[in-house]
Design goal:
This protein is of the alpha+beta class. It has two domains: 5-60, no CATH class; 63-129, 3-Layer(aba) Sandwich (Glutaredoxin). The chain contains five helices and six strands, in the order H-E-E-H-H-E-H-E-E-E-H. It has helices at 5-17, 26-39, 44-60, 74-88, 119-129; strands at 19-20, 23-24, 63-68, 93-98, 106-110, 113-116. It has a four-stranded mixed sheet with strand order 4-3-5-6, with helices on one face. Strands 1-2 form a two-stranded antiparallel sheet. 10% of the residues are buried. The mean pLDDT is 89.
């Protein structure tokens, strides 16, 4: 469902109102959605749909997925998490997974940002260049 520019603008404003002390506040989110659902302004379904999408994107920024070909040591993992928290904020949670298909190196995904330093990615890049 395509939404209007006004609905997208309203959803962005609601997202800004959803923060308390720089973090998403569940209480404010519930209050905002219930008020919109009760008052039913013009295009409220589009507003709520876009608001939900923006909230999902915002919450994904707080989750990091780190894939490596072998299990990372505790010190390496802690250093990586500290670097990511310095870049994205202290609320970041990291999940570590071993993925042998990477062959070597690691891939880090935070929200829509992806850093792929795996051997598999380099081999695919070489293959595409040839």
């Amino acid at each position: 469902m395509k939404i209007s520019k006004d609905a997208a603008r309203a959803a962005r404003q609601l997202l800004r109102l959803s923060h308390k002390d720089g973090r998403l506040d569940d209480g404010r989110i519930k209050e905002i959605t219930s008020r919109i659902a009760e008052s039913k302004p013009r295009g409220y379904l589009g507003i709520l749909q876009e608001y939900a999408r923006l909230l999902r994107l915002e919450s994904e920024k707080l989750e990091a997925l780190v894939e490596s070909a072998i299990e990372l040591g505790a010190q390496t993992g802690n250093d990586l998490v500290n670097d990511l928290r310095a870049k994205y904020g202290g609320d970041l949670n990291a999940e570590f997974r071993v993925n042998p298909e990477l062959l070597g190196g690691m891939r880090v995904k935070v929200g829509s940002d992806v850093w792929d330093g795996s051997v598999r990615a380099r081999l695919n890049q070489l293959k595409n260049n040839l």
